[in-house]
Design a protein that fits this description.
The radius of gyration is 23 Å and the shape is globular. The chain is built from 14 helices and 22 strands. It has about 375 residues and is an alpha+beta fold. Helix 1 packs parallel to helix 14 (about 360-375) and helix 3 packs antiparallel against helix 4. Among the domains are: about 5-40 and about 195-260 and about 325-375, Rossmann fold (3-Layer(aba) Sandwich); about 95-180, no CATH class. Strand 3 (about 40-45) and strand 4 (about 50) form a beta hairpin. The protein starts with a strand and ends in a 6-residue tail after the last helix. The chain binds flavin-adenine dinucleotide. Flavin-adenine dinucleotide (FAD) binds next to helix 1, helix 10, helix 13 and helix 14.
Length: about 375
């Protein structure tokens, strides 16, 4: 039987483990955490509320293949995500849309800007804030500057620890303004939450006779890389290792630690049926935290208690969790050096957000895992 070791029991690792197990491979999944699911881990608290350990995770995709694959392991509950921004106490939709325009500007001015936007940019379109900021019409530019200052600038600075301009246009170009009344955060075809949570979904994926899962097991202690060969517990390993951990850690930080943003979560249980009007409220002008999420808003079972989490963004030190890779040029160059080292190991495959130093949504994590499997068929003896 071909042997596959998967480092990491997150969504990337669980997907690829399942696919190779179904091919007949003998798959060992190891994770240093005591829990399954990596960052999508969730649990039901003593009040029956599903809480997501690593912050709010909402599934959304246009990829039917991914949706169909995950649907083998869960039933779904329809959920359409809505986010508000708190601008010094006033709540407006995120992404910013025409509702926000009429909330924040005097009626006549708002109508004039609305007409200008429709005539000169388009009706119902999603448009990057940077392109509005550099529009040839002065009134559109002034509007865009207001939105940029109040919705994006301070929030981005809090989130990334650097002003938006330092992040490069690529990141800011992902931030849209909706020239419509669309108030859903995502517009994807499939928007659902797994009925029994993400941990249950991953548990079901890993429940296969060919998969052995070892938690509280650190791969850096079991696996060693030397001169193009992989060693498991000191013995040469000729199977395949699929690694979803940090690439810099895999090579003992030889070229330095890759920079990440980390988060501190403050969970609070409240004796309320509802704390805020939407599942997530971003604090875009004040407060030290970036946003508050309310978990009871993700499911359709209101309780007489609710759980919120405040997120504080910070630099990633040695003891904090790496959450967001910082995709600026110098970091990507540092990553490329590690990638060259990894390429020297034919039976090592990198997968997921830490190994590829790339933020991926859950659907892309699953899609990448399916692609890795499909592009690397095992001939099982
Ligand atoms: C705050 C936040 C919110 C997000 N919200 C959304 C959302 O709303 N929607 C969405 O689609 N996506 C969201 N994402 C992205 C989502 O979390 C990722 O797509 C997904 O978790 C990627 O899974 P992964 O398996 O690649 O990585 P991870 O989930 O990080 O799993 C990697 C696993 O590897 C283990 N590991 C690492 N090194 C070792 C080692 N040496 N030995 C053993 N185990 C090891 C880790 O313990 C971890 O369990 C969010 C991400 C963050 C940070």
């Amino acid at each position: 039987m071909k042997k596959v070791i998967v480092v990491g029991a997150g969504l990337s690792g669980a997907t690829v483990a399942r696919l190779y197990a179904e091919d007949g491979a003998d798959v060992l999944v190891m994770d240093r955490r005591a829990t399954l699911g990596g960052n999508v881990h969730d649990y039901v608290d003593k009040n029956g509320i599903t809480v997501q350990t690593y912050g709010p995770h909402i599934f959304h995709t246009n990829k039917r293949q991914v949706f169909d694959f995950l649907s083998r392991f869960t039933e779904w509950e329809k959920y359409e995500h809505k986010v508000l921004a708190n601008l010094n106490g006033q709540l407006v939709p995120v992404p910013f849309n025409l509702t926000g325009l009429y909330q924040l500007f005097p009626k006549e001015k708002a109508k004039r800007i609305n007409d200008l936007l429709v005539a000169q940019v388009g009706e119902g379109v999603k448009v990057p804030i940077l392109s509005l900021k550099s529009h040839e019409n002065a009134e559109i530019r002034e509007f865009a500057q207001f939105v940029y200052d109040n919705i994006f600038y301070k929030y981005t600075k809090k989130q990334w620890g650097m002003p938006p301009e330092a992040l490069g246009e690529q990141v800011m170009n992902r931030v849209p303004v909706y020239l419509s009344y669309e108030d859903r955060y995502f517009t994807d075809e499939f928007q659902y939450m797994p009925k029994n949570g993400f941990t249950a979904l991953v548990e079901k994926m890993l429940c296969h006779p060919n998969i052995t899962t070892k938690l509280c097991t650190d791969a850096s202690k079991a696996i060693a890389l030397k001169d193009g060969k992989i060693y498991l517990d000191g013995r040469a390993f000729d199977g395949t290792v699929i690694y979803t951990g940090r690439i810099d850690e895999l090579f003992s930080y030889r070229f330095g630690a890759l920079p990440y943003r980390s988060l501190k979560f403050k969970f609070i249980t409240k004796n309320l049926t509802s704390y805020q009007p939407s599942a997530v409220v971003n604090y875009t002008t004040d407060k030290r935290f970036t946003r508050i999420s309310e978990f009871t808003k993700f499911t359709c079972s209101p309780k007489n208690k609710t759980v919120i989490v405040k997120e504080f963004s910070r630099a990633c030190g040695k003891k904090s969790e790496p959450y967001y890779p910082i995709p600026i040029e110098q970091n990507l160059a540092q990553y490329a050096k590690y990638k060259i080292l990894a390429n020297g190991y034919a039976n090592l495959k990198l997968l997921g957000r830490l190994a590829n130093y790339k933020y991926v949504n859950m659907d892309v994590a699953v899609e990448d895992a399916i692609a890795l499997h499909d592009n690397n068929p095992l001939i099982v003896e």
